[in-house]
């Protein structure tokens, strides 16, 4: 109000004629209404300024209190780790962290991680744990996953997908829809599968994919038991075929498509891959797009998703941090439990 009054006084002092003029009742009412409006505006401005001053500490406190598991939509392009970093940076920026007083006040760690890596060329559901929810990510590894995969017959690549170098080409013109449907049963149930060389599996502490990119000689890992719950052909338009796959942990869609090509006396690689479901989280219902990566939207998603988790693994609601003096620091932790390309836990 003081600022508004000052503005009125300053404006009045510029008038050349300061002789008082009698006011009518209407003018008086209008003046009173204007003064009331100015007073209300000043009060709103003061309140807004106050809210702006407390919003960042409040958001930081809310961010620190988040615990649980939710899902985000990973687009094609970034790796799962890169996407998680982007999410983390958005949340920290919204909470105003790091602040100039970062090193002067008590710090708390924001833990955030994902349970189940998607290739950079793939898109779909990426399950994320935050706070104590990172402890639940291990359960995501053994849960089922569902994919829509489009394969291309007639071409094999070193990565087993379209991002790699073509290593072999074979005819496919005699392959029919019935041929593909006829062999799918061989890849259903409890089967043995050889994982691809370009993968998150490790040798002497280093990823096989890293060693391959260096040009080092890498021996294929032995076949291991995996589970395919369901497998069906959705579309066949040579040379492309689309599969709907539901599988357990440690399963490689790229190996499946490659093995199908070999079984058909040809070869094949993955052209498109979308994870439509991981555990109880589906792409359509639960995966947050990037424009929903806000503290409030994630808090709401955590609340909604808590009912999806088994009672024995669901987190109890934690009390929010009581002091605004607690600020965020982020530590990078990579857990060593790596079961495969789609089964990596990373915590930041």
Main attributes of the structure:
348 residues; alpha+beta; twelve-stranded mixed β-sheet; two-stranded parallel sheet; 8 helices; 18 strands; 31% helix; elongated; disordered N terminus; disordered C terminus; mRNA processing; Pseudouridylate synthase TRUB1; PsdUridine_synth_N; PsdUridine_synth_cat_dom_sf
Provide a descriptive summary of the structure in words.
With 348 residues, this protein is α+β, with helices and mostly antiparallel strands. Helix content is 31%, strand content 29%. The radius of gyration is 29 Å and the shape is elongated. It catalyses: a uridine in mRNA = a pseudouridine in mRNA; a uridine in tRNA = a pseudouridine in tRNA; uridine(55) in tRNA = pseudouridine(55) in tRNA. Belongs to the pseudouridine synthase TruB family. This is Pseudouridylate synthase TRUB1.
